[in-house]
Amino acid sequence: MNWTGMLEIEAVKKQKKTVLSSCYQEGAFKVSRPIYLDEDMPLIYFIHVGGGYVDGDNYYTALKLGEGARMTATTQASAKVYKTPVQPVAQKTVFHLKSGSVFEYLPDPLIAYEGARFVQETEVRMELGASLFYRDMITPGWAQNGRFFTYDWIRSKLKVWMDGALILFDHLNLEPDRGIGDILQMDGFTHLGTFAVIHPLAGREFLEALYEKLEKSGAGLKFGLSCLPSGYGVMLRVMGYNTGLVEQFMKTAHSFARAELLHKDRMFLRKY
């Protein structure tokens, strides 16, 4: 397939430091050189040089972390999906995490504008002992008439395997014209955030501590927490009306998880 943008990255642990062992980039996707905000945990930026996603675009990202490697990845800016009158935009992302590795994936919000159709598939294949911190946020763009929810539809799938066993399958199908604001859909809310933590210590006790932390900062939002059936992770879903509030809420969740599970300080991504 001819990809609009493609990234293939591999990182390994050398002595006490994680380094990129290979990096291939093609088309509209680029990746920054690693920045070491933490001495042992590089930060990389996924960069889209085209300015936005348009009709028929298709993107592919693959990242592999070797045993004991640690890395944080984010985006340079929000992903903007514009009108797709003929073919939807498609994005495929695959992560492979070896035992003892830690991966924080913290992209900026996806903004879908009037007439946009978007398909996202994310697959994570982990070995026992690996850890994942995954954040995703979907927001509606403004139309000329000032209305929210003018995109056609968004379909997003997240699948996580642990040692070959499927431990998480999250499937979102958002279609504004089919009552997305109704009860049992978005219940009137317009913005959606997801934060998943998969870590050996992310069990019931961690969930209760995280809930206590978030309960104090959830004004104007609706959120829920649940443990994965495997007992190896926690899932957070939050809904709101404002991008900034939902994003800050998930940053609070990430900072708490980072401190409790990785014993690391709050991360400042230095984008502005």
Kindly name the structural category: mainly beta
Helix content: 10-25%
Round the Cα radius of gyration to an integer and report it. Answer: 18 Å
Sequence of secondary-structure elements: EEEEEEEEEEEEEEEEHEEH
**Count the strands?**
18
| Total count of domains | 1
How far apart, in Å, are the first and last alpha carbons?
35 Å
> How large is the count of helical segments?
2
Question: What can be said about this structure in brief?
Answer:
This protein has helices at residues 204-215, 243-262; strands spanning 5-14, 17-27, 29-31, 35-38, 41-48, 58-65, 70-75, 79-81, 89-97, 102-106, 110-112, 117-126, 131-140, 153-162, 165-174, 191-198, 222-227, 233-240. The protein is mainly beta and 272 residues long.
Write the topology of this structure.
Elements: E1 5-14, E2 17-27, E3 29-31, E4 35-38, E5 41-48, E6 58-65, E7 70-75, E8 79-81, E9 89-97, E10 102-106, E11 110-112, E12 117-126, E13 131-140, E14 153-162, E15 165-174, E16 191-198, H1 204-215, E17 222-227, E18 233-240, H2 243-262
Parallel strand pairs: 1-6, 5-7, 6-9, 7-10, 8-11, 9-12, 10-13, 11-13, 12-14
Antiparallel strand pairs: 1-2, 3-5, 4-5, 13-16, 14-15, 16-18, 17-18
Helix pairs in contact: 1-2
